[in-house]
């Protein structure tokens, strides 16, 4: 079971950033149907259809390279899905870790549906963002199953647990905002850092920026999405990064006095520094593909470190509550009292 979980985790570490690479390299519609490629098992079998589509639209989303990138991601995701199904079967059979294994299986089914809708609905932003969040959820559950047994719980004040929970929540929302930026191609809407297009606070327009039921690049009425909406999407992601930074600084300030947590806090701070550096570099260097993919992977690393820290702190709080829970007086030794006992 443990080997299966680790194998699935290593594969998920490849699949999630590779999905970002497919999207950012404009290969998301390299095969415009699902699950095959023009109804075939591979781009090699669909070479004639791909060649015809490329002839009709030389600059379109279909080419042999894009088709192979798209299908390679599907092959890897399918292999990960088979491993997750095997993990769920073993968990049910061995009666351990059934809850996380069940969550994995549910996430797998949802991811398959979202993967199909991503293609059939032509990269609709809400579907693409949801697909990203689903992949991150699979990765985080696997990381928790693999790593949490080796992390020792640490007794800390309740306020530190609440602060760690707020940080994990803020990172989840920030990840959703980052997915929304990427799926709307708003990463370069703000030029420069820390200013945005030469302004310390740009003009924002919210009426269309976060409308979920619209097509890619369009407003809800079908007109083109205006540039101010893209700036708004990008700027909110920057503000989210500021909020995460403040929460993390507070957590480091309060948690540093807990010596057993220092190594974990240092890892969390290092992941944050790398992620912020990648975000700034993506803006200043005009979104080079390797850095954009690394930014996606960095988000997964930062969120994972935060969730594992929260798990350590909550485990100790749960154990403490169980220890303080009063026993039912009729069962002083874990059994029914006999005549004359328990008086």
UniProtKB/TrEMBL annotation:
The keyword tRNA processing does not apply. Pathway: Porphyrin-containing compound metabolism. It comes from the Bacteria. One of its GO terms (biological process) is heme A biosynthetic process. The chain crosses the membrane at residues 75-92, 104-123, 129-148, 160-181, 235-254, 266-285, 291-311. It is found in: Membrane. This is Cytochrome aa3 oxidase assembly protein.
């Amino acid at each position: 079971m443990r080997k299966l979980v680790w194998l699935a985790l290593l594969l998920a570490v490849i699949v999630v950033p590779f999905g970002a690479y497919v999207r950012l390299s404009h290969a998301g519609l390299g095969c415009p149907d699902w699950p095959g490629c023009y109804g075939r098992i591979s781009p090699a079998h669909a070479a004639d259809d791909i060649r015809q589509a490329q002839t009709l639209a030389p600059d379109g989303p279909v080419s042999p390279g894009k088709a192979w990138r798209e299908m390679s991601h599907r092959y890897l995701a399918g292999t990960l899905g088979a491993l997750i199904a095997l993990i769920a079967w073993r968990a049910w059979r061995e009666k351990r870790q059934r809850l996380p294994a069940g969550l994995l299986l549910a996430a797998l089914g949802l991811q398959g549906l979202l993967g199909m809708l991503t293609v059939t609905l032509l990269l609709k932003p809400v579907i693409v963002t949801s697909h990203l969040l689903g992949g991150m959820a699979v990765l985080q559950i696997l990381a928790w199953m693999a790593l949490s047994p080796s992390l020792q719980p640490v007794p800390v004040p309740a306020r530190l647990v609440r602060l760690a929970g707020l940080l994990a929540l803020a990172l989840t929302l920030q990840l959703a905002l980052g997915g929304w930026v990427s799926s709307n191609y708003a990463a370069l809407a703000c030029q420069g850092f820390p200013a945005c297009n030469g302004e310390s606070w740009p003009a924002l327009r919210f009426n269309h920026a976060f409308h979920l039921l619209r097509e890619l690049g369009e407003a809800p009425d079908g007109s083109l999405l205006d540039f101010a909406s893209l700036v708004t999407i990008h700027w909110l992601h920057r503000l989210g990064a500021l909020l995460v930074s403040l929460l993390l600084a507070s957590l480091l300030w309060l948690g540093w006095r807990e010596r057993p947590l220092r190594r974990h806090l240092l890892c969390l701070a290092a992941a944050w520094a790398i992620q912020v550096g990648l975000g700034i570099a993506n803006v200043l260097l005009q979104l080079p593909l390797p850095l954009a993919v690394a930014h996606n992977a960095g988000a997964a690393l930062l969120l994972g470190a935060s969730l594992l820290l929260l798990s350590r702190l909550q485990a100790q709080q749960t154990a403490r509550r169980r220890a303080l829970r009063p026993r039912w007086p009729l069962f002083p030794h874990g059994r029914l009292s006999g005549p004359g006992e328990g008086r």
